[in-house]
Amino acid sequence: MGINFKEVTGVHADALQLRSERTRILASNIANENTPGYQAKDMDFSASMAQLEATDEGGLSLLSDSDPLYRVPFHPTVDGNTVEIGVEQAAFSQNASDFQTSLTFINMKFKGLAKAINGQ
């Protein structure tokens, strides 16, 4: 009897994938802080997760593609750059914390499986 790792990890595997993509987007924002005309992007994590879950269940996803959304700045700049470093750093930090949480849940699941396999 095989182990279905998709069932074991639950939503956390998909969450890690989305968090990884969001990390890439936020890192790009931070890297382009001084690029004139650069538009800061982000993604709607909840909508992307719902879209993945709907797709996994074989249903049709009514949500739009999980393309990055443009962020509206609190304080627009003259050069058209919408990156606000404090906002980006806070979002990056929160995303890293959420990534670590999902990773911890997956590690606990695998440790439990290892104990079951070893008969502990």
Task: Characterise the protein shown here.
The protein has one domain (10-118). The protein contains four helices and two strands; from the N terminus they run H-H-E-H-E-H. With 120 residues, it is mostly helical. The model is unreliable at 59-65 (pLDDT under 50). 59% of the residues lie in helices and 3% in strands. The relative contact order is 0.19. Helix 2 runs antiparallel to helix 3 (45-56) and helix 2 (12-31) runs antiparallel to helix 4 (85-118). It has helices at residues 5-9, 12-31, 45-56, 85-118, and strands spanning 41-42, 69-70.
Oligomeric state as shown: single chain
The sequence of SSEs as H and E is HHEHEH
Mean pLDDT: 85
Major sheet size, sense and barrel closure? 2 strands, antiparallel
Number of domains: 1
Task: Categorize the overall geometry.
Answer: elongated
CA radius of gyration is 18 Å
Structural class: mainly alpha
The largest beta-sheet arranges its strands as 1-2
Low-confidence stretches: 59-65
Task: State the separation between the terminal residues, measured CA to CA.
Answer: 19 Å
